[in-house]
Amino acid sequence: MAAPNQVQIAIPKDSADEEVDYSERAQWLRAAVLGANDGLVSIASLMMGVGAVKDDAKAMILIGFAGLFAGACSMAIGEFVSVYSQLDIEIAQMKREKKRAAENNVDSLNAEKEKLPNPFQAALASALAFSLGAVVPLLAAAFITDYKVRLSVVVAATAVALVAFGGIGAVLGKTKVVRSCVRVLIGGLMAMGITFGLTKLLGSSGLEM
Questions:
Q1: Rounded CA gap, 69 and 137, in Å?
Q2: How many CB atoms lie within 10 A of CB 81?
Q3: Of 32, 94, 165, 194, which residue is least crowded by CB atoms under 10 Å?
Q4: Is residue 14 part of a domain?
Q5: Taking a C-beta distance cutoff of 8 angstroms, is the pair 137, 64 a contact?
């Protein structure tokens, strides 16, 4: 009877560990999806803004790459500073707890130290996620010379990616997929439309690039 009891004790422990690991992975994946969505909408809107006043494919793609580099660097630096601040706070808290901890609690504090956030890892992940989303409209416009077709393809490719990112984010966040996809799609299309319209208005008012 001892063996069955040991099996019953081990199973909940394993399932609990797997649940914790899944939760951590889901948080990282969801953050990655949000970063990719940010890169997608930002660069697509930027390219549509340029496309509103210039039909030159080279200018549109160059501004897209400039936005990719600037956005990825900004996301990485912002994430690095944010996570480093969090790391400083957690280390300070651990030091305060260590002073009050008894001798048998030292090991648990060391175990917690291994789970501290990594600013460099967070910065790299944020930059890569942003770049992943930004690449979509760039690839859509790279090989199309016709002005109107190029704009249409950028909008179409961005819309498909928005639906995909919205669905993935909903699954990871355990929310309604259709509602999330529609919300993300409408938001992204609005961002592109507003940027295109306002830039077109500036161009028609006499402001030239």
A1: 14
A2: 12
A3: 194
A4: no
A5: yes
For residue 75, the Cα-to-chain-centroid distance in whole angstroms is: 9
One-letter amino acid for residue 34 of the chain = L
3-state secondary structure of 124: helix
Place of tokens 């161009």: 203
R_g (Cα) of the chain, nearest Å: 24
Q: How many alpha carbons lie under 13 Å from residue 141 in its C-beta half-sphere?
A: 32
- How far is residue 54's CA from residue 110's CA, in Å, rounded to a whole number? 58
Residue type, 86: Q
> How would you write the pLDDT of the chain (209 residues) with one tens digit per residue?
444 444 444 444 444 444 444 455 555 666 788 889 999 999 999 999 999 888 888 999 999 999 999 999 999 998 899 888 888 888 888 877 777 765 555 555 454 555 777 888 888 888 999 999 999 999 999 888 898 899 999 999 999 999 998 888 888 778 888 998 999 999 999 999 999 999 999 887 766 55
Q: Where does residue 90 fall: left (phi above 0), alpha (psi -120 to 50 degrees), or beta otherwise? A: alpha
Is 11 among the domain residues?
no
Q: What is the pLDDT of residue 161?
A: 95
Q: In this structure, is residue 137 part of a structural domain? A: yes
CA–CA gap between residue 126 and residue 122 (Å, rounded): 6
Q: Is 174 left (phi over 0), alpha (psi -120 to 50) or beta?
A: left
Range of the domain at 191: 38-204
17 within domain boundaries: no
Number of structural domains (the chain) is 1
